[in-house]
Amino acid sequence: MSAETHNPVDAADAADGGVTPFGPDNPAPFIEPPRARTKRTPRATRTNFEMYGWLFMRLSGIVLVVLVLGHLLIQLVLDGGVSKIGFAFVAGRWANPFWQLWDLAMLWLAMLHGANGLRTVINDYAERDVTRTWLKWLLYAATVFTVLLGTLVIFTFDPNIQ
Amino acid sequence: MPAGTLYRGREGMWSWVAHRVTGVLIFFFLFVHVLDTALVRVSPQDYDKVVATYKNPVVNLMEYGLVAAILFHALNGLRVIAVDFWSKGPKYQRQMLWSVVGIWVVLMAGAFYPVLQHSLHDLFGS
């Protein structure tokens, strides 16, 4: 911002009076370009994070349709529905690395897909900056905790725990 | 209500609303579900005790609701992908929504007995 002798308000008043306000003796105030780079400006001021988020929702969505509907079919539809579920049933399925991998992929993709969806919802409806920030940190904390807990359970499962 | 939340109405808006509502519901269930499954690391008895809750008729009905939410979110999600990536997607978005609803109704009818059979046997015998 250059130090000018003239107050911009005076210039505006002059414009209202129909007189040409600015000239060599009365220069217009210097307006800094809105995107001027300073020494502290990072080299890239924006990323494509939202675009990758958008793409991730669609790619993970397609995979989740297969993983989740398969999961529902096995757990809630085939072989008597919910009746057969119990520790023995879980042990039987996780004896096979294929189903361990299935559940691991489902856990990570569903949690990240859901967390990104909820992030969008929070951004849309929480209008106060403080509320929005806190809700998102709560969401991120809960997401990291749940993903890590689930991963730990899949990898450390012990069918002979007792 | 925040400004701009209710806009043009009709299929486009209501499918968007339903997608949000089902998405949030499924996400909250997912938290609970990872926590209850984590009990397999505590003891078989504790796990089976909590899974018994899932076999209660009221909770069993909620599972049918969960299936309803997931099926809609999955089918409408595929429609959203078609709208975004298929050149004729935006033109046929309305027809695709009614196809989603039709497939959803058929799948929900088909899932009725398998998902609720536990409670049906409990409540009405054999």
From TrEMBL, chain A:
Can you name a GO cellular component term? membrane
- Annotated region Disordered: the residues are 1-41
Give one GO molecular function term: metal ion binding
Q: Gene3D superfamilies, per this entry?
A: Fumarate reductase/succinate dehydrogenase, transmembrane subunit (1.20.1300.10)
Entry keyword Cytoplasm:
no
> Which ranges does the record mark as transmembrane?
55-78, 98-116, 137-157
> What are the alphabetically sorted keywords of the record?
Heme, Iron, Membrane, Metal-binding, Transmembrane, Transmembrane helix
Tell me the domain of life.
Answer: Bacteria
Pfam families linked to this entry = Sdh_cyt
Q: Where in the cell is it found?
A: Membrane
Official protein name in the record: Succinate dehydrogenase hydrophobic membrane anchor subunit
Which organism's genome codes for this protein? Streptantibioticus silvisoli
From TrEMBL, chain B:
Gene3D superfamilies recorded for this chain? Answer: Fumarate reductase/succinate dehydrogenase, transmembrane subunit
Set out the biological process GO terms recorded for this chain's protein. Answer: tricarboxylic acid cycle
One Pfam annotation, family name?
Sdh_cyt
InterPro entries found in the cross-reference section: SdhC_prok, SQR/QFR_C/D, Succ_DH_cytb556, SuccDH_FuR_B_TM-su
Q: Name one GO molecular function term.
A: electron transfer activity
Q: What's the cofactor?
A: heme
GO cellular component: a single term: membrane
User: What are the record keywords, sorted?
Assistant: Heme, Iron, Membrane, Metal-binding, Transmembrane, Transmembrane helix
Where, by residue number, does the polypeptide cross the bilayer? 21-44, 64-85, 97-116
Residues folding into a coiled coil are none
**Compartments, record wording:** Membrane
Please give the family membership noted in the entry.
Answer: Belongs to the cytochrome b560 family.
Entry protein name: Succinate dehydrogenase, cytochrome b556 subunit
What organism does the record attribute this protein to? Answer: Streptantibioticus silvisoli
Task: Name the encoding gene, please.
Answer: sdhC
